[in-house]
C-alpha cells in the first residue's frame, strides 16, 4: 500500500472523507465514549511495562486515554488512513503523551509475532467484510504474546427492537455486508475461530446508534 492509497473496499472513519474532521465530537456525543472506552481499559488490567496496540486507532482517543492513565505502558496505534493518523499524531502531541502511530492494514499488521500484551480495538470491525474480519482477528492473534488479551468495543447483537432500529443508520453508512456479522452476534464465533480461547461478552451499552458490546478473548500461554 502506498502512503495515501487505500484499498477499494476501505471504509474511512465516517465513510465520507471530509467528515473525518468532525469525527471526535460525533463519537463523543453518540457512543457514550468516555464510559465505554474507560470500562474497556479497566477490564484489560494493564500493568507497568506492558506493550499495547490500539488497532484502527482513528484520531487516537483510546490510545491517549491509555497512555495518560498508564504512563509506563508502551502504546502503539495503527490505522490504514494517513489523514486520520495525522489528526492522532497532532492530538497526542497536544496531550503531551508519547505514542507511536503507524500506518498499516488490520489484515496485514506491520508487527512481528508475539509483540503485544494487549490489543484493543474500538468501533472498527463493522468496517470489514466477513473474510477481512477473520483475517484481522488472525493477525491480532499472531501479534499477541502467549497469555495476551484482546479487548474490543464494537456494535453487537441488538438487545431489543429499538436498538435494532437505531442501528440502521450505521448499516447504511458503513455497509450492510460489513455490519451483518455484528448485528447477528457473530463476532465471538469469528474471534474463537481465529484461535482465541475464553471469548466473552463483558458488557452491552445502549446508545443512540444501537447496542455497543465489549468483547474479550485470551491467547493461551
Ligand atoms: C469508526 S473509526 C474508529 C476509530 C477509533 N478506534 C475510535 O474508537 O474512535 C474506524 C477506523 O478504522 C480505520 N480502518 C478501516 N479499515 C481499516 C483497515 N482495513 N485497517 C486498518 N484501519 C482501518 C479507519 O481509518 C478508521 O480510523
UniProtKB/TrEMBL annotation:
Q: Which Gene3D superfamilies match?
A: Vaccinia Virus protein VP39
Molecular function as annotated in GO: methyltransferase activity
Q: Which UniProt keywords apply?
A: Methyltransferase, S-adenosyl-L-methionine, Transferase
Q: Which residues form the Methyltransferase domain?
A: 52-148
TM spans, by residue? none
Give the matching Pfam families. Answer: Methyltransf_25 (PF13649)
Query: What PROSITE patterns does the entry give?
Result: UBIE_2
Name its GO BP terms in alphabetical order: methylation
UniProt cross-references to InterPro entries, sorted A to Z: Methyltransf_25, SAM-dependent_MTases_sf, UbiE/COQ5_MeTrFase_CS
Transferase in keyword set: yes
Q: Which PANTHER family match?
A: 2-METHOXY-6-POLYPRENYL-1,4-BENZOQUINOL METHYLASE, MITOCHONDRIAL, METHYLTRANSFERASE
Q: What is this protein called?
A: Class I SAM-dependent methyltransferase
What organism is recorded for this protein?
Dasania phycosphaerae
